[in-house]
Amino acid sequence: MVFPDGIWILALTSLIVSALGWKKFLYFISLGYGFSIAAMGLVMVAMYRTSLTPHMLLLALLLIAYGCRLGGFLLHRELRSTSYRKELPSLTKSSHEMGAGVKFAVWISVVVLYVCQVSPVFYRLDNATVGAEVWAYVGAGIMLLALILEAVADYQKSAAKKLRPDRFCDTGLYRIVRCPNYFAEILFWTGCFVSGVGALTGWQWAVAVVGYVCIVYIMFGGARRLEIRQNKRYGTDPEYRAYVGRVPIIVPLVPLYTVEKYTFLKG
Prior knowledge:
The chain is mainly α. Helices cover 69% and strands 0% of the residues.
């Protein structure tokens, strides 16, 4: 297995951006994540600017839009959200005990993951794939839908928390699924994976599958972590118990109402 030069350039890009995690450990998987995806999208446009076709440019731009939206939202939330700042110490308390070696291992691991996640788009560009454009457009359509859903979900939750900061959110998309932002995240990377159909060859499929499976696992783990926090906070509220009993936790219409018992999920 020989990786093209472009993969190493993407890895270096992500390595630099995700180094934000050395300032605050959570940034490895928050700001460093969003802005790494955006930066790698920009680098792909720069590397392949002379051979970009409309569908290839569209895919790269969607990665940039995704990363900028996510990174910008997370930065705004940390700077402006009082409730989030109150939660931050509990979210990061375990990271204070981590040594430099562990942090370095996490840094390298997330860089590998982020590169694997964007690999379907990268290989479509690097392979200069002719044909199979329909898969690129289908994937782009799914990615765009996911971006819209994620932005709407974040807006609806922020609006609900301004009105009732002490109450769980069950309005808008949250009437359909309890973690619409995590669902939208899975949907976005599903679209990215689909965009590689017809372009990926041989072991390139393994790289793409690793990225996709890992991010889906992480999102389910994140949903479990959120469920545990919400159960502690709202578990005695009859409205909350009724809500979690009728609304799926992460995939709309799929009758999976809890993942708390699945201890193998880490996110």
